[in-house]
Structure formats: structure tokens, C-alpha cells
Known about the structure:
This protein is an alpha+beta fold. It has helices spanning 8-30, 76-89, 129-135, 169-174, 217-223, and strands at residues 38-43, 51-54, 60-63, 67-70, 98-104, 108-113, 119-122, 146-154, 160-168, 189-192, 196-201, 207-210, 231-242, 245-250, 262-267.
Amino acid sequence: MHIKRLPFFLLIICSVVLVCLLNLLSFAQDYTLGSQDVLKITVYEHPDLTTETRVSENGRITFPLIGELDAKGLNTLQLEKNIADKLSNMGYIKDPQVSVFITQYGKRVTIIGEVVKPGQYEIPGTPTVLDMISTALGLGPNAGYTTTVFRKEVGQDGKVRTSNIIIDLDKLLNGGDLSQNIELRSGDVVYVPKAVFYVYGEVNKPGSYRLEKGITVKRAIAIAGGLTSKGTQNRIAITRKHGEKESTHGADVDDIVEADDVIRIKESIF
């Protein structure tokens, strides 16, 4: 009997699908359960115990014979063991084989950086960037004018990658550009960076200041209280970071200030 060999491209497709399934399985096992997650729980050879349940706001589920038990903060393997132990210890089933599947994920988004109350939040519905900033009680005093949304996605090759979505907070908050107010997915991390610049030397109020979009050296000097009687616009130096390195160069009053710039106003030589 002659068996036809699968075309090469079908073998490639099957391999990609298998890799995707393995990555998704790994993600599900590492994922910690939270409120609004929907679970399907089965016990081998006991179909009457098959249950679909939603994790409540207080992080608990209800399962037949056991009643309520904690689920929030556990992964599926830990919950399987807890249910199996309870069924066994309570004398209902000897050596139960329990399986827990996540059929629907709740919305959990993390916001970190320059916000009043950073953390991970469980938000119903479809949260946006503005929703998360509001939930975190607003921006901190040194928040930058951009924020980044880090999002994990499974590519066609089955590999999990993190994409970076840049949000222009200046356009969103000051310009009313709602295209910047993107919808967030469960697992997204919103990062609001600190953005300040420093002014030292011959200014009346040396120190650090929040960086706003498009600030020039001239504006930075004004924010720092203006020049002292010894200061001059003709002797300005900026120290700027380039990764882990930094360089110092002369600057003009119309140059644009960048995050972490150190502006030094030198004394007039006349």
C-alpha cells in the first residue's frame, strides 16, 4: 500500500500551529488568575462535576461538593491541585484528575512610572489609556509628554513578542487627539516615564524642572528664574545622555531641550 507524503508546506503549517499551541499552553500555565476570568473545570471520569465558573470580585469560585475556594493569584496548575486535594481529603474521590481551562480572560492592566498610584488594576469593559491614568489617580508632577504601552503578542511563528506603542500625551491631553487614547488589552503595561531637565549656573532658580514638549533653552532659562546679573546667553553648555554615555557641547537659546539634559549657564567673561 502506497502512502502519500504530506506536501512540505503542510508540514510547515502543522509545525507553526504546534508551536503556537505550546506557547499558548505555557502562557496559560504561567498566567495568574484574577477576577472576571472564566474557567472550565473538569474531573476525569466524573462528567457530572464539569463546571464553568467566573472568578468573583473577591477572587473566589464555587465548585460542586467543595463550595467556595480561592482562585485569584493562582495559576491553573495550582488551582487544579487545590481542587484535587480537597476532593480527596473530603473523601469524595480517590486520586482525582482535575483540569482547569481558562475560557475567557478578565481585563487586567498594569500602569507604572510617573503616576500617583501605580499598580495592576482589574477594569471591566474596554479600558483606554485615559481610563488607566484616571484609575491611577492622574499623572505625577514629573510625567513626560509621551507614554509607552507594552503589549505581548503571539506572532505567526508562534513566538511571543512585546510590541511598544508610543502614545503622545501632549496631543491627547492638550490637543484633544482621541486617536492617542487607544483601547487596552488584558496584560498590557502602560509606562509613564519621568521627564525632567536641569538648569545650573548663572540662573536665579537652579534645579530640576518637568520637561514639556518643545521647550527651548531660552524657555528653560525663563523657567529657572532667568539669568543672574553675571549670566549670559552666549556661554551655554548642555550635557546630554546617549544611552549609558553622555557628551557636553555648546548650545544656542533656540535649541530644543531633551529629557535629562543638564543646562549650564556660564558667567559672562566681560
